[in-house]
Amino acid sequence: MENALSSTSPAPVTTMDADTRERNVWTSVRRGWGQTCPCCGEGAMFKSYLKVNDTCATCGTELHHQRADDAPPYFVMTVTGHIVIGGIFFVEKNYTVNPWLQLAIWSSVLILLTLWLLPRVKGALIGYQWALRMHGFGGEGYEGADLVPAEPKPHA
Questions:
Q1: CB within 8 A of 112, min separation 6: which ones?
Q2: Cystine design at 43: which of 50, 56, 90, 153 (Cβ 3.0–4.6 Å)?
Q3: Average pLDDT of span 79-85
């Protein structure tokens, strides 16, 4: 009886297990959208508006590997552009509104929506990178570790 109980108890998680175990993409993206650590979901991802913490204060996961760069603004511009342009077309077709009022309303919507979306999209992208072990999140320790070395060029 003792042997059966001891064989069903879970083994402790080691750092090697943490690097090789499956990372759920959707959970990581959702945690990033919530601006929390993609690993534990509790620690803050950002130390200021868009400045990413080097490590998670809760679980110690390194977040400095992230390479969000220009992707979050691109996605935010695409989404907000479709919403604002679609809204302008809808209002123009169905109502008679002073152009200055339209400008005031839609520029405010654009600014507020952009400021609200940008950190969430950046967090989701970092969560996605973490889940797929991109850019050093896989424990390799350096950028480009997953790339095959290039053949050296012959000197002429």
A1: none
A2: 56
A3: 96
Q: Indicate the residue type of 100.
A: W
Q: Dihedral of CA 25/28/31/33: which sign? A: negative
Task: Tell me what pLDDT residue 109 has.
Answer: 96
| 46 bridge partner residues | 52
pLDDT digits (tens, 9 = 90+) for 23-42: 889 999 999 999 999 988 89
* Domain assignments of the chain as residue spans, ordered by start: 25-131
Q: State the DSSP H helix or E strand holding residue 106, giving kind and residue range, or none if neither.
A: helix 99-131
Long-range contact pairs involving 98-106 (C-beta distance under 8 Å, separation at least 24) = none
pLDDT tens-digit series, residues 122-137? 999 999 988 888 877 7
* Residues sharing a CB contact under 8 Å with residue 88, sequence separation 6 or more, in sequence order: 102, 106
